[in-house]
Design a protein that fits this description.
The chain is α/β, with parallel strands linked by helices. The chain has two domains: about 5-215, 3-Layer(aba) Sandwich (Rossmann fold); about 220-285, no CATH class. The protein contains eleven helices and 15 strands. The strands form three sheets. It has a six-stranded mixed sheet with strand order 6-7-8-3-9-10, with helices on both faces. Strand 9 and strand 10 (about 210-215) form a beta hairpin. The longest helix has 14 residues, at about 165-175. The two termini are about 35 Å apart.
Length: about 290
């Protein structure tokens, strides 16, 4: 039975104008799990609760086999965190940051850190305040990879990076999980990145988990029927997850595009991207 690097069960956090409502999912060891949802859906709240940055109202969180109440220095060593934006003092350089982290992380790998700086073309002596957004993000990723992390928790980690650098970072993520004891939870608005690297997708909408599914199921089984009004009326809506009217056609999301194509041979049934699936769930009408 496959173990899990992260298990979230019934996580609830109530604010005056928002509720993270009974969120449950897991990150199996050796996998990359993508967390998607529109702005304000609850992705960052979920990540902050996982990392103990906010107090949860109810639910349980297990990190690397330990309850979050046991989030001690040893566990912190094994969790690499990257947020959207720099969380390091602007007056420091990467070289000075290395000196700081040597005293924070008992498993800090100085050689690995400087090797990554070179690999990412990051200057060791330049102050962080003079880094571009992309450089700051790469620095955060270099730090996360340099203290023997077993679980990476990444919030918009490829944001602000150009396509070439993003591709390099994604390759690093894939290489990281080749060791099946390593795992990644990554939230991202760039769903094409998740289509490349994620094993599973967790979709949060208005504080609730809409689905947790394998990426392959979403990419290779889900589909979108595109049709005119007459065909739309003839389609059995019980087989449709959500639908919406576009300018000249209807779009209908189905969980089994091959079955839909067999049943409606005259209809166009296209593969669905993760973006399209999310949009139809959010903007479409449920069956």
């Amino acid at each position: 039975m496959q173990s899990s690097a992260l298990v979230v069960n019934g996580l609830t956090k109530k604010y005056q104008d928002f509720v993270l409502d009974n969120v449950s999912f897991s990150v199996p060891s050796g996998t990359i799990v993508g967390l998607i949802g529109e702005n304000g859906a609850g992705k960052s709240t979920t990540i902050n609760a996982i990392l103990g940055l906010i107090n949860k109202d109810s639910g349980t969180i297990e990190l690397l086999g330990k309850p979050d109440s046991a989030f001690d220095g040893d566990l912190r060593n094994q969790i690499g965190v990257v947020f959207d934006g720099s969380n390091y003092p602007d007056a420091l350089s990467a070289k000075k940051l290395n000196s700081v982290f040597k005293n924070i992380y008992s498993a800090w790998d100085e050689n690995r850190f400087f090797s990554l700086l070179q690999e990412m073309s990051l200057p060791a002596d330049k102050k962080i305040k003079d880094f571009s957004k992309g450089m700051k993000m790469k620095l955060s990723i270099a730090v996360a990879f340099s203290h023997n992390s077993k679980l990476l928790v990444l919030d918009e980690a490829t944001s602000g990076l150009d396509p070439v650098v993003r591709d390099d970072i994604l390759d690093m993520f894939l290489e990281f999980v080749q060791d099946e004891s390593n795992s990644i939870l990554v939230s991202s608005h760039i769903t094409s990145d998740l289509e490349k690297v994620a094993d599973y997708i967790v979709f949060i909408h208005k504080g609730k988990v809409v689905f947790c599914k394998s990426k392959d199921e979403l990419r290779y089984k889900y589909g979108i029927i595109r049709c005119g009004a007459a065909q739309f009326d003839a389609i059995d809506k019980d087989e449709v997850i959500a639908y919406r009217k576009q300018d000249y056609e209807w779009e209908l999301l189905v969980a089994d595009r091959d079955a839909a194509q067999r049943k409606y041979p005259k209809a166009v049934v296209d593969p669905a991207t993760i973006d399209e699936i999310m949009l139809l769930y959010v903007k479409g009408e449920a069956k």
